[in-house]
Specification:
Layout (H helix, E strand, L loop, with lengths): L1 E4 L4 E5 L3 E7 L5 E8 L50 E4 L10 E9 L18 E10 L4 E10 L4 E10 L5 E13 L5 E6 L7 E6 L3 E6 L12 E5 L10 E7 L4 E7 L5 E7 L6 E3 L4 E3 L2 E7 L2 H16 L13 E3 L1 H4 L5 H14 L3 E4 L27 H10 L4 E6 L3 E2 L4 H5 L19 E2 L5 H16 L5 E4 L21 H19 L4 E4 L9 H4 L4 E3 L6 H11 L8 E6 L12 H8 L3 E5 L7 H23 L1 E6 L6 E7 L5 E8 L10 E2 L9 E4 L5 E3 H6 L2 E2 L9 E3 L4 E4 L12 E9 L2
Parallel strand pairs: 21-22, 21-30, 22-23, 23-26, 26-27, 27-28, 28-29, 29-30
Antiparallel strand pairs: 1-2, 2-3, 3-4, 5-10, 6-7, 7-8, 8-9, 9-19, 9-20, 10-17, 10-18, 11-12, 11-14, 13-16, 14-15, 15-20, 16-17, 24-25, 31-32, 32-33, 33-40, 34-37, 35-36, 35-40, 38-39
């Protein structure tokens, strides 16, 4: 609901649990008054700060003592009387940069419009949300900024973005334009964000706010492994289930900036948007620029409350298409089983074993096209290598379909190898700067998606493959970041637009292909989680969470990813040991339980499993099919963090509280340690739940207040298959690489 109080000149944006209030000040500036728990009042004028060592504003903006720096703003400009970090910075034809945007008009309407060329949250009917568009103008330079706010009532989220319109007769250079800026009157917060690297994505970072500027950003051309486009301010006493959280998430897949500034008066400003670093945009007369969408979430129920808001909104009003509400198939991917060393005979042997196990989808990874027998050639040559796949791709697909399996295929369409047919024909199609070295990574260059001809080539070549065989899943990979960012077709004054134009080109490609093949399940990948962001989820409903398939490392990666993203968006696989990334040996049962945190699958050679492992795999698959809807569509609770404990636990609870999963992991063996108890969260306290494995019953209040005791045998070095309650291995080991990792999983069903 959006309420405009004309007498007070206030906008009150209300969700079911929150209020966000703005005011058109006497000067014409748009001020921020409040964001937090739902309020009934529309009069918060008294909350506007006054600095008594300056003369108060008395309906006279020309008063020399009026300083915007002392006031909380929604759209702070640059060069006037606010010296803090601006949301916008422009360069005009006369070389000046000063802006002063003031209120002109507004409109409120039901529903939500699409953003031009950009992914964004959506509504299925106009009653779900209301949108407020406020037009601000710098009348001296004749430029408008339309601020769009959409209120999702039942999802308790507010989205905002900016459209800039050049109404002048001169070119304007955009140096900086962020999507959201928010001022707080205090700075007693801690910053929460997700940081990492390749194979170590989305580790949770939390640190006190201090005077000055603290920021996270990507300058890599993608949202990146190193930082996720999300930031939150949390009160120091915030826990998973208690306290206030203010969060911003950016629906964008390229370079971003999330910035927090604490000024000399201990107030703070929080911002997120396209990274201004190495960015300008030439805005011609009568043209527009649209920023990506920022999604704002307030929670008074701790970090979990924030997470559930993002998870529910992104699962239902960001992810689109036929697969949004469908259970995702259990898959087998051949990458770690074969790498490039395969032919159709080896592939079909693995597929047949997968079929015997009850797996539903076979995915053929890298190496099926061009002359691709290693990673040093052929990206861009999207034709089947029939020297490896005798009889062609369609025959292989048909053969695997006849085994009762769906078929999926790996692509890396955004890249080109210097050793390829495509590069011979079009050496100018990659990002490059004339006269500079073309730096390769993984023996590849990045195609220039700012070019329409390159985009159309990708659409045509990928569509040809997808049209000629019954392919029902695509893994869309991207294995390097950008260097020498330049384009042959753009003028010198447009070269710093390339990184953003690339992302717009990518979105154009993804929109065309996903709409052309609506029944295909697309999974995004960027060397794992290098582009796990809301922008990609709009086109592809799941993401390969990390190239690191080690079960113990995945505890942190999956735990951190759940801070913002729904579990149905996470790809999680069981792989071989010693693990190919960290050489760790982890029990098969632990690998299985760790992978039951999202879309479950395997990434190993099933034909090489021993009999015990085969039986375990079959039990895991059978069990996952039983709990699949709970995992993929239930509420996720983080019970014990891997970042500060040797024991890790999480839980899934059905929306109707009818069943729950609790998973426990012990990271390192320790002698003589106390009984460990895990308390469930999110159950109905007056209901009775039955342990599906043992038949024992517990009250919901018991499970949440008293908790569950971890079986003693785990702490004696026993490795359980908790699905069958059998000890599979016993005995301690001193080998630090092998370790002794234990896990357990409970399935509780409400019986009354």
């Amino acid at each position: 609901m959006i309420i405009f109080n004309q007498e007070k000149s206030t906008f009150h944006l209300k969700t079911a649990k929150t209020s966000y209030i703005m005011k058109i000040f006497d000067s014409g500036h748009l001020f921020h008054l409040y964001w937090g728990n739902s309020l009934n009042t529309n009069n918060l004028d008294y909350s506007i700060p006054r600095q008594n060592w300056y003369k108060e504003l008395e309906k006279n903006y020309d008063t020399n003592e009026f300083q915007l720096e002392f006031y909380p703003q929604e759209f702070p400009g640059y060069g006037a009387t606010d010296l803090r970090s601006p949301i916008i910075e422009l360069e005009f034809a006369d070389g000046s940069s000063t802006t002063d945007f003031k209120y002109v008009k507004h409109k409120i309407y039901s529903g939500k419009h699409k953003l031009d060329g950009l992914p964004a949250t959506y509504t299925e009917n106009d009653s779900e949300a209301q949108t407020l568009e406020i037009t601000l103008s710098d009348t001296i330079k004749n430029i408008d900024a339309i601020l769009s706010f959409t209120v999702f009532d039942n999802y308790n989220a507010i989205t905002r973005s900016v459209k800039l319109i050049n109404k002048s007769n001169h070119n304007i250079k955009i140096q900086r334009i962020l999507s959201a800026s928010l001022d707080f009157k205090e700075s007693n917060f801690e910053i929460l964000h997700l940081s990492g690297a390749w194979a170590r994505e989305c580790h949770i970072e939390r640190m006190p706010l201090r005077k000055g500027t603290q920021s996270i950003e990507s300058r890599r051309g993608a949202s990146s492994h190193s930082q996720n486009p999300f930031i939150a301010l949390v009160k120091p006493d915030v826990t998973e289930n208690y306290g206030e959280v203010y969060a911003m998430s950016l629906v964008y897949s390229g370079n971003f900036l999330a910035n927090i500034e604490v000024d000399m008066y201990y107030s703070c400003r929080m911002q997120i948007g396209i990274n201004p670093f190495d960015f300008t945009w030439l805005l011609k007369p009568n043209s527009t620029f649209q920023t990506p969408e920022a999604v704002l979430v307030y929670s008074n129920d701790g970090i979990t409350g924030m997470s559930h808001t993002y998870q529910n909104l992104y699962a239902k009003r960001l992810i689109r298409g036929n697969w949004r509400d469908k259970a995702r198939p259990i898959l087998i991917n051949n990458w770690e089983a074969t790498y490039f060393d395969f032919d159709e005979v080896k592939i079909k042997k693995i597929a047949q074993e997968a079929s015997n196990f009850g797996i539903e989808l076979f995915v053929l990874d890298d190496g099926w096209f061009g002359q691709r027998n290693s990673d040093d050639c052929s990206l861009g040559d999207w034709f089947v290598n029939e020297n490896k796949l005798h009889g062609g791709l369609k025959k292989l697909v048909d053969d695997i379909n006849s085994m009762g399996l769906k078929f999926g295929l790996w692509f890396e369409p955004e890249m080109i190898c210097p050793v390829s047919e495509l590069y011979k024909k079009h050496p100018d199609w990659c990002l490059h700067v004339k006269g500079r070295k073309r730096s390769t990574a993984r023996h590849q260059l990045v195609l220039d998606l700012s070019r329409k001809d390159v985009c159309e080539y990708i659409i045509d070549s990928v569509s040809t493959i997808l049209s000629n065989a019954n392919i029902e899943y695509v893994k869309w990979d991207m294995n390097r970041n950008m260097n020498e960012i330049g384009s042959d077709l753009l003028a010198p004054e447009n070269q710093r637009e390339v990184a953003h134009r690339y992302i717009l080109g990518l979105y154009y490609i993804l929109e065309k292909i996903t709409q052309k093949f609506p029944n295909i399940l697309f999974e995004s990948c960027a060397s794992g989680g290098g582009r796990f962001d809301p922008g990609m989820l709009y086109y592809m409903p799941q993401t390969w969470t990390s190239d690191n398939t080690d079960a113990i490392e995945r505890l942190k990666i999956q735990y951190g990813t759940s801070i913002v993203y729904p579990n149905i968006a996470m790809g999680c696989h069981v792989s071989a040991v010693p693990n190919h990334q960290v050489s760790r040996i982890t029990p098969f049962s632990t690998r299985g339980i760790a992978a039951m945190c999202g879309n479950f699958g395997y990434e190993l050679d099933l034909t090489k499993l021993n009999n015990q492992e085969k039986e375990q795999a079959k039990a895991q698959i059978k069990f996952y099919k039983m709990i699949r809807n709970l995992i993929q569509f239930g509420d996720f609770y983080r019970l014990q963090s891997p970042f500060n404990s040797n024991e890790v636990a999480w839980s899934f609870v059905a929306k109707d509280k009818s069943e729950a999963i609790v998973s426990f992991f012990r990271v390192l063996a320790q002698p003589n340690h106390p009984q460990v108890t895990i308390r469930a969260v999110g159950l109905e306290k007056n209901s009775i739940y039955q342990d599906e494995r043992t038949g024992l019953t517990y009250g919901g209040d018991e499970l949440m207040s008293v908790g569950i005791n971890i079986p003693d045998d785990i702490f004696q070095g026993a490795i359980y298959d908790s699905l069958s309650n059998k000890v599979l291995f016993a005995g301690m080991t001193n080998n630090s690489i092998k370790g002794d990792y234990s896990s357990f999983i409970w399935h509780f069903i409400k019986i009354k």
